[in-house]
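EI: anyone free to look at a 279-residue chain?
SC: sure, send it
EI:
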Amino acid sequence: MSLMEALRAVSNQDPSLRRRMREFYETSETYKRLLDHHNSAYLQTFVNLVNSHAQPQSQLLEVGCGNGVASRMLADRGHQIVGTDISPLFLAEAKVWETDCLTYQVADALDLPFPDQHFDLVCSNELVEHVPDVQSVLQEMIRVTRDGGRIVVAGPNLCSPITSLLDWLRLLIGGAGRPIWAETKEQAFQGLQRNLRYYLQKRLNPEPNFIFREPDLTDQIIGGDADSVYVASTIDLEKFFQQRGLTIIKLSVGFGLKGKIVATLCPRLSPYISMVVQK
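SC: here you go
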């Protein structure tokens, strides 16, 4: 299925999608091997971002913690943290890291098993693009965050025209494409047009406009967020949080010199979401 077919298919989305995605993450050894690449070096920027907005010895929750490495790193920084994921398969090896300050729990991000206002900071990394009802997940994150606490959401901005422009330019000079989104010059240019249209529509629309796609759950993972269901956008998240009375501290912090320049000058276009919100 092409990307455009996937985007169109979601309008007739099977109501069993939530169940199918759960089963995929609970059973996919292929995806688990992909997560093995999410090591401490890969997660360092996310952990630094979270730690910089957490008070010393804060009580933290990481939603969708995957292999649990980021939660372990935050516990090493002196925080009390619970790492949750929908997949017991992903968490199986992380259980050996548990301490008085670090625990792991199998939990659905759509229905977190914690009381209201329980955590000082709630965070997620590369999660929201993988959930079929992102609004409910964000609302759950708000619910379990204490008044005055913070929420950190990080992940790819799949609606960024900058990413599509870079894809197109790289292919024009003979470089490699990007799986799913920009495998050919034609597809990359179509992606640039589409993301420019999305950006303008989202900026002009007073309401968040969540766009979904049919995920590839065939267990033939080739990268590029083939299994993503939400075409993630900084603008959607910004408007969602603002409508619920939360304060945006940062839309994007950017990583590396170029990333920091883009995040400063045009944060809603940044290829990577790194949002900090205060309740």
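EI: The beta strands are 59-63, 80-85, 102-106, 119-125, 145-156, 247-250, 272-278.
SC: 👍
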